[in-house]
Amino acid sequence: MPQTFTKSERLCSKKILGELFKKGSASVRTFYLFPFRVLYIPQPEPGPDSEPLLPAIVITVPKRIFKRAVDRNQIKRRVREAYRLNKALFSQTGTPPATIAFLYTAKQIISFEEIEKGMKLALKKM
């Protein structure tokens, strides 16, 4: 699996985003794992010969906590890189979810190593 992060892996659809963030939706699963709150929609059961696709992801950092766009962008870059390096874990654990939202919940900017550790645990948990 190449370590790339293509356009097809970015979640852009307003319809799917609305579904992912809809309160009380039965199809959305969620869990907290520092420094993330992870929301995801499981993939429908694939056929026996079809290969599971990589999930589309979105990364959000709250403007309320990080007022400066520079800080929000730095956190998003770190989270995106941690995901890109560790998305191969999906091929080891089975069927990946269809869509994932990573909500950054820490109150300060944390190191890439801590973000990567949280990302690995989150990907294994899914």
Automatic annotation (TrEMBL):
InterPro entries attached to this UniProt entry: Ribosomal_Su5_D2-typ_SF (IPR020568), Ribsml_uS5_D2-typ_fold_subgr (IPR014721), RNase_P (IPR000100), RNase_P_CS (IPR020539)
Keyword list, A-Z: Endonuclease, Hydrolase, Nuclease, RNA-binding, tRNA processing
Membrane-spanning parts: none
Pfam families on file: Ribonuclease_P (PF00825)
Top-level taxon in the UniProt lineage: Bacteria
Molecular-function GO term, any one: ribonuclease P activity
Keyword ATP-binding attached: no
Gene Ontology biological process: tRNA processing
Record's function text: RNaseP catalyzes the removal of the 5'-leader sequence from pre-tRNA to produce the mature 5'-terminus. It can also cleave other RNA substrates such as 4.5S RNA. The protein component plays an auxiliary but essential role in vivo by binding to the 5'-leader sequence and broadening the substrate specificity of the ribozyme.
Record's protein name: Uncharacterized protein
Organism: Spirosoma linguale (strain ATCC 33905 / DSM 74 / LMG 10896 / Claus 1)
